[in-house]
Amino acid sequence: MYEDLFQVRSNDLTPTTGRILIASPLIKDYHFQRSVVMLINSEEKGNLGIVLNKELKVQMSLNELVHELDGFPRIPLYKGGPVNRYSLSFIHDIQEIDQSIPLGNGLFLNGSFNLMLKYIKQGNPIEGRVRFYMGLAGWNEGQLLTEIDNDTWIISNPRKDIIMGEDIGNMWKNSLAIMGEPYSTWSKYPLIPSMN
Description:
Elements: E1 20-23, E2 36-43, E3 46-51, H1 62-65, E4 77-79, E5 83-92, E6 101-104, E7 107-109, H2 113-121, E8 130-140, H3 143-149, E9 153-156, H4 160-163, H5 171-177, H6 183-186
Parallel strand pairs: 4-8
Antiparallel strand pairs: 1-2, 1-9, 2-3, 3-8, 5-7, 5-8, 6-7
């Protein structure tokens, strides 16, 4: 009677730029367990994304990399993925940053780093407006579609209030919960089922 309740299946949305990939609750991979990934490009040759909800193993701040920000409040860096670990990306909702790439739903990728620094140094709010990431997630040609066929990812349109909210620790759960059933049930699946 309940055999399908915990049978995690991918949905039928297309993985395109600006959509998010929400990891199946059954993924045990170190980099992607309970992850939410923003797709930043989607091409036949492969896909790139940024993991939105993971902390770096060793906490770092943008202030440590950019000495112009010495004396400013600490701006945390997050783990964007295991590929190009030393590349810096930022996701934001600040339309005035030139050369930003629209991701949809009021979100943008990168843009002029100098303008972003100017924005920060002018004392403008960054909490809930911009988040900085080190590294990327990447898939070779056909790899992401294969993973989706294997029910590894659920695809969704991002909600800015969840993506840019303060609580990145619950981003995975909240992203699933707002999708309704059966996803809201999957959001309650315990991280370690044997300890439930």
